[in-house]
């Protein structure tokens, strides 16, 4: 798929799972990458796997940090535009994972709900806002990863 060569791809939650696998796959197609997550070691390993697919280490920018902090979100935007000068694909993949971060239930903490909204809605909104001008110029793509849980009522909510 030669059309992806040199495209700039931003992936949140790229230190594991779907985000990490996507980073490696995009690298295989010759993309330049900006990857975010909280675990430095895991991000380094993803960068190494991207290099093993044939791109240079300079073409993988790591922005480590917790997306709960606006500064980290802004750093992703700044790093992308300063380093690569453009963006073609924004992959909003990181999520508040109720199995990892704590359940959202009617008996749960209301703070968990705030956190879920922040990571799953506010962060993608901020990133889209920061990149939209450039994405329109490049006729780019925004991918928002969701879950079946967002459309299927689950009894887990009442525990
Ligand atoms: N796996 C599934 O079966 C499944 C099903 C439906 C939907 N999905 C969706 O697919 C996407 C990825 O899921 P996954 O299973 O691949 O998840 P995962 O392996 O648990 O990875 C989640 C990623 O998000 C990052 N992340 C979480 N909170 C963060 C925060 N506050 N700041 C920065 N990074 C943060 C994690 O970084 P660190 O680990 O470095 O902190 C990690 O890289 C999610 O949007 C999820 O809703 C997955």
UniProtKB/TrEMBL annotation:
<protein>
    <submittedName>
        <fullName>Uncharacterized protein</fullName>
    </submittedName>
</protein>
<dbReference type="Pfam" id="PF00106">
    <property type="entry name" value="adh_short"/>
</dbReference>
<dbReference type="InterPro" id="IPR002347">
    <property type="entry name" value="SDR_fam"/>
</dbReference>
<dbReference type="InterPro" id="IPR036291">
    <property type="entry name" value="NAD(P)-bd_dom_sf"/>
</dbReference>
